[in-house]
Specification:
- The protein is mostly helical.
- The protein has eleven helices and two strands, in the order H-H-E-E-H-H-H-H-H-H-H-H-H.
- It has one domain.
- Helix 4 runs antiparallel to helix 5.
- The radius of gyration is 21 Å and the shape is globular.
- 49% of the residues are buried.
């Protein structure tokens, strides 16, 4: 069986839909990166500082490398077809755009995912230099790590774009939900950088989590533009949260035993990254579905309120934390409503933009 992964507009001989293989490889790479991240965070929490060469880091690096190589392969094959004046199928990653003075022809989705992978390489070299200069990483949010997280996020955005192009195909529909869910889960770590901002009475991390959760949820829903779109993204996130809730502590303990390192005395078994994901996200997804006919800012504001209002309860349930001061709680919920409304409108806009990546029906080839 022959599988056509190029963007040439020739019919595929095999049964695998055109574009599925490279899109699946890019998505698989982002999932591997997410596995590495949840593992690395748990390692910092349960064991302590680490060096550059660890197994969780290997997952992070391998995920970006896989996505980057797949993106590069599609760009090179598309460029070769364009040089031979062969028709380029826009269903594979979107319409091709010229890069470096049209030296390369790159489908826009794979261009974005490839740029993210290339930036990861740059920040990875910086991270290696950082480890060589300072030794162990005591915290997860070191400057090179922030760059690494942002570069992986760009690759994940590219994965969403690749599947959004094929949203009318069954594999494209499922891919959008999984890619958006992966991006949402990953972004919960990126918002930790907001803790450095002077938020005053507002919990900036909770407000930021509400903003990104609502925005990505709306984006996925409007890309799919069908009943159950938001719920599909929410279910994917809930599945990843449940899976990593078990995996993160287990993998950390097994790897620590294998390397002869002890766990910290105060390890509580609560996973780091999964607990950053709002448990109320499914409730927000249901609200988005029920309020589908209203302006996006209404459902977005409600989603922001739900997440910020229930975030302290989630920490009380998992960590036994105290309820925050009333002034701080109310201020954070109000900020969540405002940011949620903005996120709803932005998510709708981004979703509509991603829908425009899909080729017109008359331009598609079976």
């Amino acid at each position: 069986m022959t599988v056509n992964i190029t963007a040439a507009a020739t019919p595929s001989v095999g049964t695998v839909p055109r574009g599925l293989v490279p899109a699946g490889v890019v998505l698989g790479g982002t999932l591997i990166s997410l596995i590495g991240l949840t593992w690395d965070i748990q390692w910092h929490s349960d064991v302590g500082p680490d060096t550059f060469f660890t197994l969780p880091h290997l997952f992070l690096y391998a995920g970006s490398a896989i996505s980057g190589l797949a993106s590069l392969a599609v760009v090179l094959l598309t460029t070769a077809n364009a040089k031979r004046d062969k028709a380029v199928d826009p269903l594979v990653g979107g319409r091709a755009v010229g890069v470096f003075g049209r030296t390369f022809s790159a489908p826009v989705g794979y261009l974005v995912s490839g740029i993210g992978a290339a930036l990861f390489l740059v920040y990875g070299l910086w991270d290696q230099w950082w480890h060589g200069l300072y030794g162990f990483d005591a915290v997860i949010d070191s400057p090179p790590h922030i760059g690494l997280l942002l570069s992986i996020s760009i690759t994940m955005v590219g994965a969403v774009m690749v599947f959004a192009v094929a949203r009318d195909q069954s594999w494209g529909t499922y891919g959008v939900a999984v890619a958006a869910g992966t991006l949402l889960a990953f972004s919960m770590v990126t918002v930790l950088g907001l803790s450095a901002l002077p938020g005053g009475p507002v919990n900036t991390v909770n407000a930021g989590s509400a903003f990104f959760s609502v925005m990505i949820l709306f984006m996925g829903a409007y890309v799919l533009n069908r009943r159950g779109g938001a719920l599909a993204v929410g279910v994917v996130v809930a599945f990843l949260q449940a899976l990593f809730w078990w995996f993160s502590p287990w993998a950390t303990e097994v790897y620590a035993d294998a390397t002869g390192l002890p766990l910290r005395d105060y390890v509580d078994g609560i996973p780091g990254l999964p607990n950053m994901i709002p448990m109320s996200l499914l409730l927000v997804a249901v609200a988005v579905e029920l309020l589908r006919g209203l302006p996006a800012w209404v459902a977005g504001a409600l989603g922001g309120v739900i997440i910020t209002a229930l975030a302290p309860l989630q920490r009380m349930l998992t960590y036994g934390s105290n309820f925050p001061a009333l002034q701080r709680y109310v201020a954070t919920v109000v900020a969540g409503a405002v940011l949620g409304a903005l996120a709803g409108m932005l998510g709708r806009r981004f979703g509509q933009m991603l829908r425009h990546l899909a080729p017109a029906k008359e331009d598609r080839h079976a």
